[in-house]
């Protein structure tokens, strides 16, 4: 159970539902864990939990994923601690419904771009630059959504942001595949989380995918078994 021993895995949104499941998954396989989030107290408590469970090294960092200077400083700190980043699992994102396109609710549009698109240019892009500069044969997995594939009424900003994020992922994959870096994505349907159960109380939750399902897919795309895969959008829909 030490498949990632000596390797460093960075997880964005580490204290969220998917991020937590993912940290436990990689921790159980002996990875060094870089935990990125906006809540320092939750991160510190979570790193203690992981250390007790697996005895792994952890490095919690609060960083603005849209601020390139902050991201560069974070990467420098990780490099000083662990030498290099081998895997990036990018789980940051968010959903917001909105008004029809013709009402031009730019607040929702810009918020969705800030959550779902810009961090791929800043944080994901800078981590990949670190891999290139150090000759790391690394893996990057980005959590997107089924919404990337088709528009929907009153969630145009969300769907458009996910579509843009998917296009960025595909472009980045083509840019770095000849350097030994794999960039892929996981596209969930509805994830079974407390918030989603609260928002959709009458749903059949057995049809939804679990956070463990998503963590398993990300883990697979981070292993050597996924070496031939570049720019893939792995659909993890369950029966929803």
Number of helices: 8
**Overall average pLDDT:** 96
Q: What structural class do you assign from the helix and strand content?
A: alpha/beta
SSE string, helices as H and strands as E: EHEHEHEHHEHEHHE
Shape: globular
- How many domains, in number, for the residues? 1
Low-confidence parts: none
Which architecture name does CATH use?
3-Layer(aba) Sandwich
| Main sheet makeup | 7 strands, parallel
How far apart the termini lie comes to 32 Å
CATH topology: Rossmann fold
Return the CATH class.
Alpha Beta
Rg result:
17 Å
Q: How big a fraction of the residues is strand?
A: 15-25%
Helix content: 40-55%
Oligomer: single chain
How many E strands? 7
Identify the strand order in the major beta sheet.
3-2-1-4-5-6-7
CATH superfamily: NAD(P)-binding Rossmann-like Domain
Q: Can you put this structure into words, describing what you see?
A:
The protein is of the alpha/beta class and 240 residues long. It has one domain: 3-Layer(aba) Sandwich (Rossmann fold). Helix content is 45%, strand content 15%. It contains eight helices and seven strands. It has a seven-stranded parallel β-sheet, with helices on both faces. Strand 5, helix 6 and strand 6 form a beta-alpha-beta unit. Helix 1 crosses helix 8. It is globular, with a radius of gyration of 17 Å. The model has no long low-confidence stretch (mean pLDDT 96).
Topology:
Blueprint: E1 8-12, H1 17-27, E2 32-37, H2 40-54, E3 58-62, H3 68-82, E4 87-90, H4 106-116, H5 118-134, E5 139-143, H6 156-176, E6 182-188, H7 194-199, H8 211-221, E7 233-236
Parallel strand pairs: 1-2, 1-4, 2-3, 4-5, 5-6, 6-7
């Amino acid at each position: 159970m030490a498949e990632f021993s000596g390797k460093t895995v960075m997880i964005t949104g580490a204290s969220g539902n998917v991020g937590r499941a993912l940290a436990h998954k990689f921790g159980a396989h002996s990875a060094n864990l870089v935990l990125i989030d906006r809540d320092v107290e939750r991160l510190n408590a979570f790193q203690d939990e992981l250390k007790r469970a697996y005895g792994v090294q952890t490095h919690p960092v609060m960083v603005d994923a849209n601020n390139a200077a902050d991201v560069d400083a974070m990467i420098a700190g990780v490099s000083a601690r662990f030498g290099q980043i081998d895997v990036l699992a990018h789980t940051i994102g968010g959903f917001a419904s909105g008004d029809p396109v013709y009402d031009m609710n730019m607040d929702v549009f810009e918020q969705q771009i800030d959550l779902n698109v810009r961090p791929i240019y800043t944080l994901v892009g800078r981590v990949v630059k670190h891999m290139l500069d150090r000759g790391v044969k690394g893996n990057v997995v980005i959590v997107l959504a089924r919404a990337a594939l088709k528009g929907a009424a009153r969630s145009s900003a969300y769907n458009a942001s996910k579509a843009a994020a998917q296009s960025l992922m595909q472009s980045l994959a083509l840019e770095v595949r000849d350097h030994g870096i794999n960039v892929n994505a996981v596209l969930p349907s509805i994830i079974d989380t407390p918030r989603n159960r609260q928002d959709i109380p009458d749903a059949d939750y057995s049809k939804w995918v679990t956070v463990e399902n998503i963590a398993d897919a990300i883990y697979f795309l981070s292993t050597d078994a996924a070496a031939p895969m570049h720019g893939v959008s792995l659909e993890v829909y369950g029966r929803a």
